[in-house]
Amino acid sequence: MDFRCGRISIPEPDNCSGADNLSLNTGFIVAPDDSSAFKVSVELYLIGTISLLGVLGNCLSALVLRRDRERRESLLLLQVLALADGVYLVAALFKYPLKYLINEYAYQHIQLGAFPLLKTSQTICIWTMVLVTIDRYVYVCHPLRAQRLFTRRSRRLWALGIFVAGVLYNLPRFFDSCISTFILPCGRKHIAAMVYRTAFANTVYYILYRHALYILLLYAVPLTILACLNCRLVRAIRRSRKQHAHCVHTAYPHDPTTHDNNATTFLVTIVVIFLICESLEPVIHLLSFMESQLGVRVMSFNYMNIYTVSALLMVVNSSVNFVIYVVLGQRFRRILKETFKQSFLTTTSFLTRETVPLQQQQPLQQHKQHTQDKHGRCLEDQLM
Prior knowledge:
One of its GO terms (molecular function) is G protein-coupled receptor activity. The protein has 384 residues and is mainly α. It has two domains: 6-328, Rhopdopsin 7-helix transmembrane proteins; 332-384, no CATH class. It has 14 helices and three strands. The protein has a three-stranded mixed β-sheet. Strand 2 and strand 3 (190-196) form a beta hairpin. Helix 2 packs antiparallel against helix 3 (76-95). The protein is globular, with a radius of gyration of 29 Å.
């Protein structure tokens, strides 16, 4: 059936009991469903709460990393990652919990922008994580090349390149869909859903772009790179700790190698969590594609519930970095405390000035005016 944007009437079937199934089995991008209690709990409460906290955490992370003046340039990529994660979480708020807070028709129209934004920020997050890992790998395993490959200017260019590539790759998503309102014959029920526009409703776009390239560029290639580099970083940490065990703990307690190992361990932890949280989504995507193309029941479990768990894991992945920074980053904690302390002192000083009683302000003003008059008269006497 060729779907168009606008209002579409479903032909009346012989048996009205199958009308709902007929309307929902049409290859929608986003189709409404009878949400289970599990799905509502996860998408509305868990994802909503974690996303809000994650946005706050990523804003604080970007602020603290920027305030680290000694390592601001080396931490530039982590700042970009925090901003990309923040945008992803904002888009996730519009994608998951919002559906339970507004009407279906308005929600579907918002998805025309929210869903492409979600995928765009996801692409930027994934490849920024790859870039951060490559940066650390080159610094640890090939330090002489690091000075040439990752300079202040090159880091900015790499980050800009990932942003531009992520936007260009996901640009078709902003134009490939529209909203159709399906009118069911039994009970005249109206269902709004996203469908492909006619220009994009073809096999090449669906299979090549939305499935093959998606799996390849967002999961197969980046996750393979991350896994390989992570293993090499772990081996480098173990080798470095064996070589410098005595000097680190005895003669040179502040040896720079200790800091390098801590920074590498810090990144390895982030990458491991990233791999765990991002690995479920491509598996579900691949299995659902096989079901739709082969017509074979691959997943015997509830597909929507597993997809909900996958969405939760990806939201957790974009929210957890701040927690890792606080737990493992001693320098991060110190700068964070200084930031809060400075903000508290500034706020307290401002409130103190604003709450000075009027009775105390008037004598001060009178004294100031008296002083000005006295000096003014003295100046007049001198001039005369």
